[in-house]
Amino acid sequence: MKKKPFVSLEQVQEMTKKYPTPFHLYDEKGIRENVRKLKKAFSWNKGYREYFAVKATPNPYLMQILKEEGVGADCSSYTELLLSDKIGLGGDNIMFSSNVTPAKDFELASKLGAIINFDDITHIDFYENIAPFAKTMSCRYNPGGDFTLHNQIMDTPKDAKYGLTKLQMAEAFIKLKEKGVEHFGIHSFLASNTVTDDYYPQLAKILFQLAVELKKETGVHVAFINLSGGVGIPYKPDQRGNDILAIGEGVRKVFDEILVPAGMGDVSIYTELGRFVMGPYGCLVTKAIHEKHIYKEYIGVDACAANLMRPAMYGSYHHITVLGKEDKPCDHIYDVTGGLCENNDKFAIDRCLPKIDRGDYLVIHDTGAHGFSMGYNYNGKLRSAELLLKEDGSTKLIRRAETPEDYFATLDFSEFENNNVK
Ligand SMILES: *Cc1c(COP(=O)(O)O)cnc(C)c1O
């Protein structure tokens, strides 16, 4: 399928009059429509709830849009909790799925009334010295071994640092029950960016069977099962996207097969999607500022890996559209690079694109999740702005670009006063 940007050259030209490139741009209409479809896919489950994984796109304006659609927040750190509190999320609107959790993070999560999802059995004793146990608490499960789908290894939970073993799950539930906990959650995250409609149903099967066993063994009430994140998006044009309605139907099928006969038809299904919810509805807009002809052909742009780390870090593919040249033949082969002093700072390698001229605007697709948020300041590069393309077609600045003052804000220069050359 041809990948089309959600923004046109004319729109970008208008935006850059006020906001220079590079910037991340988000599509309100796309976000809302997608979330509504996700909720529809699980509408068969009375207690269904999506907790957006804040780490994917920690911007309060975007979280507010999701909040208006009935979505909560999945946090894993102190500042993500603060951010959720700032937009008025609290209580069971926050899922706290952390690991290696500092005491002050548990303290704040408890104060905000968040649902706490323990990553380890030892955290129960650790937590007891910090905050009171709530009526509802959750534990993260790690089944160990390899996680396979259709005889293909998707990931290796046995090598993952997360979660409790099966034996520990039962032990933890008994322990928490003794502490007065009444309602229990089970959570697991076994594979990332899955592009198949079978991941969630397969994970659900594992967790539903576990829930039935745990209930038998410990007698606790399982209130919810949290399928966490991991539903992916098609970064490449030849990939077929996930059909979220089919995924919801697949989970319903195993729900009816396993939980309903066990008298557990009241269990709520939760999700903590980040990438699926936001990924396709954000892009990085950047300008070609240099071209270089040596052993290869290079296009240098004004964004760099500090604005989008995935290609450098994982070798990830992100599709690129040259705005205004959507219908031109892709008869040039380029490396599209940023300006970090790192040779992996390449948004694309040997990519077929139309002829690019200096001043052309490039859209780097699918940066709405794990894009801006993974940014960093290496080489003194500054974080870009974030803009929202609203449903009415107007543009709103939802985070300004960093300035050198921001970069220096944590330094005390008083010992170096009067040293400036000019
Ligand atoms: C990262 C993360 C998610 C979201 O993952 P996606 O791949 O973006 O869907 C959800 N839950 C937890 C605990 C995570 O760490």
Mind explaining what this structure looks like?
There is one protein chain. The protein has helices at 9-16, 28-41, 60-68, 78-86, 103-111, 122-128, 166-178, 199-218, 244-259, 275-278, 310-314, 404-408; strands at 23-27, 49-53, 72-75, 94-97, 115-118, 136-140, 147-149, 152-155, 183-187, 221-226, 268-271, 282-293, 297-301, 320-322, 332-337, 346-353, 361-364, 385-389, 395-399. The protein is of the alpha/beta class and 422 residues long. The chain folds into 2 domains: 28-279, Alanine racemase (TIM Barrel), CATH 3.20.20.10; 280-408, Lyase, Ornithine Decarboxylase, Chain A, domain 1 (Beta Barrel). The strands form 3 sheets. Strands 1, 12, 13, 14, 15, 16, 17, 18 and 19 form a 9-stranded mixed beta sheet that branches. It has an 8-stranded parallel β-barrel with strand order 2-3-4-5-6-9-10-11, surrounded by 5 helices. Helix 2 runs parallel beside helix 9 (244-259), helix 7 (166-178) packs across helix 8 and helix 8 (199-218) runs parallel beside helix 9. The radius of gyration is 23 Å and the shape is globular. The model has no long low-confidence stretch (mean pLDDT 97).
Protein traits:
422 residues; binds pyridoxal-5'-phosphate; TIM Barrel; diaminopimelate decarboxylase activity; 28% helix; Diaminopimelate decarboxylase; 12 helices; Lyase, Ornithine Decarboxylase, Chain A, domain 1; lyase
